[in-house]
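To assess whether the prediction recovers the assembly geometry, we first specified each molecular entity separately, as shown.
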Amino acid sequence: MDKIYSHPQSLRDVSTHYCPGCGHGLAHRLIAEVVDELKIRERVIAVAPVGCAVIAYDYWDFDCSEAAHGRALAVATAIKRVRPQNIVFTYQGDGDLAAIGTNETIHAANRGENLTVFFINNAVYGMTGGQMAPTTLLNQKTSTTPSGRCAQSQGYPLKISEMLALLPGVKYIERVSLGSAPDIIKAKKAIKKALVNQMEGVGFSLVEMLSPCPTYWGLSPKESLDWIQNTMAKEFPLGVIK
Amino acid sequence: MPKITIDKDKCKGCLLCVSVCPQGAIVINEELNLRGIKPVKFKSEGKCVGCALCALICPDCCIEVYK
Ligand SMILES: Cc1ncc(C[n+]2csc(CCOP(=O)(O)OP(=O)(O)O)c2C)c(N)n1
Ligand code: SF4
Ligand code: SF4
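The predicted structure of the complete assembly is given in tokenized form:
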């Protein structure tokens, strides 16, 4: 009997602090599987965000750094420029990448840094208690929009991936979903492409993953996956953006 | 006969594996794990086809698959 699915080497065999059904664990695993498959475990340097994934470095079994909230792409730029032989990626939530870190994100993309970005869009600030994020959907209830996000006072869900695609320095952007088994397979392919791009010197590559936060969506893990497919992916359409 | 193993103490009982198993080969384990929750257990009775959908969707990397 052959083992046809086994734990990736690049992921430590430990229990994570994530809530049941949280997409962070899944995204960590997919990245670890791709790092193993590309045999780049000794070359990778990840930059962890501030957010629920703040201790991602305790889960990945390769080199990692940490950045202040939103500054992952500034830190990654420095690491990559000093150590161009390494494969450097950031892993950032929507609060980290598209709110406090908007400045660093846009300028790293505009400079066309040869970096890879994994952007976890769960439409809320998970770590701090489920507040509204820039990517929160209209009418979505969060702890700071208890009756639902209203465009008049809180603006519209921010399409940061589409915005970044306008920049000539950006070479690849794809939005994927962690909401179903077929979508997870596609997500892994996009993760691989974004890392291979860096290895081949193609340039700035970003994968946005629509990712469940059952806790602050007030849904069960299964309902959260359905919500991604039926609601979130309508506002944030899947596919290659650039 | 294909089979899976489940790391019961890492399992958080999210039941996503149960929702994707086409054969109904994963069920709730009434015995609490170290986390103090009911994890899942493999109850194939020869039904498991080794599709690995459970391992694909598990957010906590608890499942390994043999075929
Ligand atoms: C400079 C600074 N401002 C604010 C915070 C508080 N804070 C911690 S995490 C976070 C938002 C996290 O949301 P997101 O990036 O979407 O990640 P998630 O937790 O949802 O994965 C905020 C505002 C902080 N840690 N540092
Ligand atoms: S609060 Fe949300 S994003 Fe944070 S660990 Fe829990 S489910 Fe995941
Ligand atoms: S998907 Fe993983 S964590 Fe969730 S119930 Fe199944 S084995 Fe447990």
